[in-house]
Amino acid sequence: MLKRIPIQHLTLGMYLHEFCGSWMEHPFWRAKFLLKDPEDLARIRATSIRECWIDTDKGMDVAIGTASISWEEVDAQSDTDFSAPENTPPPPQAIPPTPAPRNHAPTDIDSELQMAAFICRQSKEAVVSMFSEARMGRAVDTPSVKNLVQDISDSITRNPDALISLARLKTADDYTYMHSVAVCALMVALARQLKLDDEQTRVAGMAGLLHDLGKIATPMVVLKKPSRLTDQEFDVVRNHSASGYQILKKSGNLPEAVLDACLHHHEKMDGTGYPDKLKGDAISLIARMTAICDVYDAITSDRPYKNGWDPSESLRRMAEWSGHHLDPRLFQAFVKSIGIYPVGSLVRLTSGRLGVVVEQAPAALTTPVVKVFFSTKYDLRIPPELVNLAAPCATEKIVAREDPGHWNFPDMIELWSGFSEQVW
Prior knowledge:
Residues 152-350 form the HD-GYP domain. It holds the Pfam family DUF3391. It is a single chain. The chain has helices spanning 38-45, 71-79, 109-135, 142-158, 160-166, 175-193, 198-210, 220-223, 231-238, 240-251, 256-264, 285-300, 311-321, 328-338, 404-407, 412-417; strands spanning 2-6, 15-20, 33-34, 51-55, 346-349, 353-361, 364-375, 380-388, 398-401. By secondary structure, it is α+β, with helices and mostly antiparallel strands. It folds into three domains: 2-69, no CATH class; 79-338, Orthogonal Bundle (Hypothetical protein af1432), CATH 1.10.3210.10; 346-417. Helix 7 (198-210) packs across helix 11. It is globular and about 60 Å long. The protein starts with a strand and ends in a 7-residue tail after the last helix.
């Protein structure tokens, strides 16, 4: 039996199954071993890692009463992160910006944020229509799906940070649709990081856009339930992958890989997922990619019953599931595609100033562009200033992630996005 415990409860004789943290945070080339050497225990306690998984079937158990947490709880929660499509409000009446011409030239983050906001609005409307059509039993409009994926892919090519970051911002009512858009964008970025060809990248984007279509067949009373679901209700929710597969199969004109991702994006590397309990490489590449992108967007999004985790904290937590739930090689590529400190992350610099990440550095994961705006030394706001940590003259570096919930800055989103409120 696997148990997640604090490092201070780790003792000799326990079987270490996995560290809860990044693969870069510990000095061991292996993670699974029986802890017998006191020096190994001391080295573990000297790292920044605070929790680990132990296997009580292969080593000692913790004392009775020590808390343990299962990754299935978060996975089950992400399954129900779908609000009622019928409750979606009409689009805002603000005049949209003029659509940008399709091109692949790189753009600065501010310019691409404006274009990405327009693409998000268009994408949401298209997904609303697609879900409505599917609910009435009509086939998925494959050409429209391809065009939508192409627009998203073009934005990712010009500047990978903008659309991925904006698509994370959702209200409870538009979660259904923006989740599909966000997972599509994340899939395209991951496909590019893996150097998949254009057709494979397009298929990955389509899989992200359509992976949760089957939830239109799940009763709203179950999807909207704000409290923990019963086992019977979980079974109902878990049928969405098979329902989506059947809906897409009836369309008859979608790549098989897209159907497979819809059916198997809740499979786990250790064989404990659903619906077929596939294990390891028996799960297709596209399905393993979709699992990562789906979980990341679900846990970073605000829901009526929980606040989304900070992007950096989400990656830390996902690292804990890498290996038994998520493909570790693909997860490493995913981190490289969005950064160790994704856009929107609150960080502390060596000077004690706090800032929010606004853009990634192409060549390094740990040196993004940060907009500093608060001094912890004087405990007050300071004029916002962009600091490029990758610049040759840079004298600062990130020393810690910060919990936005602790600081409760009311304008965090505006600081990194430039938008003061929901833009779609």
